[in-house]
Amino acid sequence: MRGGSGRGLAILGAALRYGLPLTGLVVIGHAVLISIGGDIEHWEFALGALLIALGFGAGMIAQSGR
User: Fold this and answer.
1) C-alpha to C-alpha distance for 66 and 21, rounded to whole angstroms
2) Do 48 and 25 form a contact (C-beta atoms < 8 A)?
3) What pTM was computed for the model?
4) Domain extents for the chain?
5) Four-CA torsion 10, 14, 20, 22, nearest 10 degrees
């Protein structure tokens, strides 16, 4: 049973480590495309940067826990 929870934590860790920065890049990319049309959404840029920072932070926490 314990091996299953370890695998689940590994999957969750990978999702946090890689999923958040990728989602942040998608959000920033969307904001850039919208800003070309003249409608600049500052909150989208901030949200994308926050997601990228959270992803890198999750990677640092995962490494320090080893």
Assistant:
1) 21
2) yes
3) 0.72
4) 17-64
5) -160
Q: Is the dihedral of CA 14, 18, 21, 24 positive or negative?
A: negative
Percent of the chain at pLDDT above 70?
A: 85
Do 48 and 28 form a contact (C-beta atoms < 8 A)? Answer: yes
Q: Are the beta carbons of 14 and 49 closer than 8 angstroms?
A: no
d(Cα 66, Cα 64) in Å, to the nearest integer?
6
Q: Phi/psi zone of residue 39: left (φ > 0), alpha (ψ -120 to 50 degrees), beta?
A: beta
Residue 38 DSSP SS3: coil
Query: pLDDT: is 48 or 11 the higher one?
Result: 48
